[in-house]
Amino acid sequence: LLENIAHVRKEAPDALPRLRLLLMKHAHMLNENRAIPHVVFSGGIYTGHPDRKAKVADILTGYAAGIERIVREGIGNGAIRADVEPATTAILFIGMILPAAVIWNVTEGEFDMIAHVKAAWPAFVRSIAAE
Hints:
The protein is an all-alpha fold. It is built from 7 helices and no strands.
């Protein structure tokens, strides 16, 4: 996840294209690695292992912080509305992916997660883009 943030910062010049690229990288990563949601959301992985829990928390909060930074940059250059809250927007962004990943996982891949995030992207952009 954190490497994907670094990659999109290099690959896309502006906030909205960066966010779209990050969304697709995240969805493809989950689509290609079914075990990731099991590991990240398994209570058993953390029980009796506070260091593991802390490491996953650091990764997830670091990912959200990276998204917030992209959103702040977009606000700064006028691509994203000034009234958008970066932290909330980061969680909304992640929310386009994680529920879809859960549904994809429990349906054994029958739910098309990639199609979902592609369809969700325009609604997300309409909610944050400057006019």
